[in-house]
Amino acid sequence: MRAAIFRGPRDIEVGERPDPVIREPTDAIVRVVLACVCGSDLWYYRGESPHAVGSIGHEFIGVVEATGSEVSAVSPGDLVVAPFIYSDMSCPHCLHGSTISCKLGGNFGNGTIDGGQGEAVRVPQAGSTLVPVPGSGHSDQTLRSLLTLSDVLATGHHAAVSAGVSRGDVVAVVGDGAVGLSAVLAASRLGARRVIALSRHPDRQAIAKEFGATDIVAGRGEEATEAIMDLTGGIGADASLECVGTPQAIATAFSIARPGSTVGMVGVPHGDVPTAQTFFRNVGWRGGPAPARIYIPELLGDVLSGAINPGLVLDYETDLDHVADAYAAMDERRAIKSLIRVGSL
Ligand SMILES: [Zn+2]
After folding, report:
1. Ligand 1 mean position to 128 CA, how many Å?
2. Ligand 1 center to residue 97 CA distance, Å?
3. Residue 284 to residue 263: CA distance in whole angstroms
4. Is 125 left (phi over 0), alpha (psi -120 to 50) or beta?
5. Considering Cα of 85, then 296, then 88, then 136, what sign does the dihedral take?
6. Are 93 and 102 within 8 A, CB to CB?
7. pTM for the structure as a whole
8. How many other C-beta atoms can be found within 10 angstroms of the C-beta atom of residue 11?
9. pLDDT tens for residues 258-291?
10. 309 alpha carbon – ligand 1 mean position (Å)
């Protein structure tokens, strides 16, 4: 089969990988329909984090082609969403909600295990990992939104859930990448009264507003903190969502958190939490990689009903042959997030 191959920083191309086959009775083979590039894939692309040579990509939807003898929850022909981590949903970590720590889990597209950016994927723990999509004849817009359940929307939702966003809250979202925009949507969906999006880019501001942002703050750093304190009467945000991970973004997220609140962190941290400042203001933080598999069923209903349209973050599109351009477009900020159209239903 053809699949994206990571060869090294700034060196991704479509190549050949072995056709996936059922190896364990808990496996399924999924033919990929849509995939996309994650902000975290860019770290590998830019050489900021190591990645093994080989398969890459962990966000995909597709159609089940074959199942192992112990897989009964999905069947050949099913349209399925794959969370970015596979998991058994029955080990102690899964049962406590941390599917990303599953004892039998693992990452798609880690160099060895099939990646989503390819024609097909062998999915381990398929019955507990894959979520079948009810209905048929879904529009392309719906399919694009279903793809975001794989990671980006689930991650934005995790930021909001981790920060304890509830009805009537004032929420501030640091970061206007695809995850930050998804966090705006998630906060709004959970009933936030006011969602303040930090963004300097008109195209991203427009999506943030579409997703429910009530206020836009264009400044950064201390300027952003001052603007948000002004907007909140000097109190700060009831929930501050950190969706970037840079030292400045982390500092901003904590500086705008109301005393007694919780910061939801989903940007992979490249800086430290200001412990003393946080301690003396009774501010907490939660977050980490999203347990996407747990969130997908809840979010899926709102995608299918049309209540939310998270696929809007996918503003650039290539096919598998042009996967290198999908990465370059995000690297060069020509794209918020690149869709890779691999197959059809
Ligand atoms: Zn598990």
Report:
1. 9
2. 9
3. 6
4. left
5. negative
6. yes
7. 0.97
8. 13
9. 999 999 999 989 899 999 989 999 999 999 999 9
10. 30
